[in-house]
Write a structure and sequence with these properties.
Length: 324
């Protein structure tokens, strides 16, 4: 029998190489190398595993809040502290700072209701702190300040009296718990002043000042307030200026200085110009921070009216109305 070719009985014959097949293999190899490298560099994350994202810490939110406060942006400071409390809801120190800033922000509110709403928010915050730490001197001192501010808001006389009684009690306990709590002594002095207990108020603000409190804005502010109540307006201005030197971006301090200079303008007309400078400083700071606050413009308009400059007064009054 004739066999024209030798056949392989045990394996398939090897075909010739396919160039497209080889190219496909090379592409797969290159792709695998790229994927492995991307995994190693973190550019690709495995499926079903959450992609890692930067996590904000409590401290970062507190620092952010402090920065906003120092810049005078109180609403942003409040937001940062609120975010910090989401991470540490039982941190009484953060709650005390938040409530304090809320009190400051209430000074910038244009209506009685807005101010009352903000103070009630502050009370809710500090009440939670007191529930967690009822014997914390810092918390009780701040709560005294919140209650004192509520006592001076537009409320029925009976409610004002009740808040003032509570404020006095909280301040006294705060001082008893920590006699070095200078802010509690200053807040207590302010409460006493509102009750016409002048000698005691002087005694406590002096204690706060002499123990190093002159470096604290609230101590200087309350000393200014006490001098203002005594009608010693020049000394009051001096202490408000000291407070503004410590916290140079709080517009309510400049507004208060302007009000006192405006009052003195009836005895010395040059004081009107100084009043306008402080109101303008508050307005300029608000513009710089992007804050819409009509209060400085209303104050400027009022000052121009007293100076007999109706056109300038109307321009600023119109600007205040545009904001409000």
């Amino acid at each position: 029998m004739y066999i024209d070719e030798r056949k392989n009985l045990f394996r398939n014959p090897r075909g010739s190489s396919n160039p497209y097949f080889v190219m496909a293999i090379l592409l797969v190899v290159v792709a695998l190398v790229a994927v492995v490298r991307a995994f190693a560099q973190g550019e690709i994350w495995p499926p079903f595993i959450p992609t890692p994202t930067p996590t904000r810490t409590v401290n970062s939110f507190v620092i952010e809040g402090d920065t906003h406060f120092e810049a005078g942006s109180l609403d942003k400071a409040i937001q940062s502290y609120q975010q910090a409390l989401v991470l540490e809801p039982n941190n009484s120190h953060i709650r005390a700072n938040l409530a304090t800033i809320m009190v400051y922000s209430s000074y910038t509110m244009t209506t009685d209701q807005e101010r009352l709403d903000r103070l009630n928010q502050a009370l809710e915050v500090i009440d939670l702190a007191k529930a967690d730490e009822p014997n914390n001197s810092e918390v009780l001192g701040v709560r005294a300040n919140v209650l004192s501010s509520l006592a001076n808001s537009n409320l029925p006389e009976a409610e004002q009296k009740e808040y003032r009684i509570q404020a006095e009690s909280e301040a006294l306990i705060a001082i008893q718990l920590d006699n070095n709590n200078l802010l509690a002594k200053a807040y207590y002095a302010e409460i006493l002043m509102d009750q016409f207990k002048y000698e005691q108020a002087n005694d406590y603000i002096s204690q706060a000042r002499e123990a190093g409190g002159e470096s604290l804005m609230d101590v200087c502010r309350i000393q200014a307030y006490i001098y203002e109540m005594f009608r010693d307006y020049n000394l009051a201005i001096d202490w408000y200026i000291k407070a503004s030197d410590i916290a140079p971006n709080l517009t309510f301090l400049y507004n208060r200085i302007g009000v006192l200079y405006r009052y003195l303008g009836q005895f010395d007309e040059s004081r009107y110009e100084t009043a306008l400078e402080y109101f303008a400083k508050a307005a300029g700071l608000n513009n710089q921070l992007g804050i819409d606050d009509p209060i400085p413009y209303m104050a400027i308009a009022n000052t121009y009216i007293r100076m007999g400059e109706a056109m300038a007064a109307s321009r600023n009054a119109y600007r205040a109305l545009e904001i409000n």
